[in-house]
Design goal:
There is one protein chain. With 274 residues, this protein is mainly alpha-helical. Helix 10 runs antiparallel to helix 12. The longest helix is centred in the last third of the chain and has 38 residues. The chain is elongated, with a radius of gyration of 21 Å. The protein starts with a helix and ends in a 7-residue tail after the last helix. The relative contact order is 0.15.
């Protein structure tokens, strides 16, 4: 069975570093994922009990801390605060990224002007640009939304552009032979044919956006789950700190896996049940 990562490579989908890591986890067969998870947890427990580092808790201590934060509601409240800039940033990134990608794929003059900008945004190190965002927009919600957009939008835009460019030319020729108008070619031929790859880009953009909001909460102002990490580290409650980090990884993997399943159901019926 092809993994998500190989599937992305096969379809030409461009992914960021976070997306590639999540794809590698989400695309593996179930048995191997469970075996890998069990080995990882066992190694974590052994390392924690060996006391090689006083700041590294065991796996069971981390799970106990995670359950405590879930029970007292602090973890849920932190995620609610984190989701606000994440959702706003993703909505903006989807609107502008998909629109720009489609236009770049359809019009060469738009491609010349816009594509270098998105390639530069994708290649730029996000952590180095955070101080610039903070200097211009302060430490409020706007700066966090921008951090999400700067990571998610390039991935969405470039994959939408490649999706439109990879539409089979014979489909467009068929539309022309039936006297289809340019509007009909775009909305009835190009966009439906490009939808699978565009959705794959959206899924990868969501993963990058989540990485962006966590970076923003750690580097701009400590709120939400970033505040939980910073606060627990400052008072040496390392089990709680690791529990928050673990919850972030689980949340991202589950979200991307659900989007991958939705993508398979809607656009890739040949992979259902794989």
């Amino acid at each position: 069975m092809a993994t998500a990562g190989t599937g992305a490579a096969a379809t030409g989908v461009v992914s960021g570093p976070t997306s590639r890591a999540l794809d590698a986890l989400g695309g593996a067969p179930l048995l191997w994922r469970l075996v890998s998870l069990a080995v990882f947890c066992a190694a974590w427990e052994i390392a924690g009990r060996s006391n090689f580092n006083w700041a590294f808790p065991s796996f069971l201590e981390t799970m106990a801390a995670l359950w405590g934060m879930i029970a007292d509601g602090s973890l849920g409240a932190a995620y609610l605060r984190t989701l606000e800039p994440l959702v706003i940033g993703l909505v903006v990134s989807l609107g502008i990224g998909v629109g720009a990608g489609v236009l770049m794929g359809l019009r060469q003059d738009v491609e010349w002007v816009s594509l270098p900008v998105f390639i530069t945004m994708q290649a730029a190190p996000m952590a180095a640009l955070i101080p610039l965002i903070t200097f211009v927009y302060g430490i409020g919600l706007t700066a966090k939304v921008l951090a999400v957009c700067m990571l998610a939008m390039p991935v969405i835009a470039i994959n939408s552009y490649k999706a439109v460019r990879n539409v089979t030319p014979s489909l467009v020729d068929m539309s022309r032979s039936f006297m289809g108008t340019p509007r009909q070619q775009v909305f009835k031929i190009v966009l439906p044919a490009a939808s699978p790859m565009m959705f794959a880009g959206i899924r990868l953009g969501v993963a990058e956006g989540f990485s962006g909001v966590v970076l923003a909460e750690l580097l701009i102002t400590p709120t939400g789950i970033g505040d939980l990490i910073t606060f627990n580290r400052s008072i040496a409650k390392f089990a709680e700190m690791y529990a928050v980090i673990l919850s972030i990884v689980v949340f991202a993997v589950v979200t991307v896996s659900l989007l991958h399943r939705l993508e398979t159901t809607l656009f890739r019926p040949e992979k259902r049940g794989a």
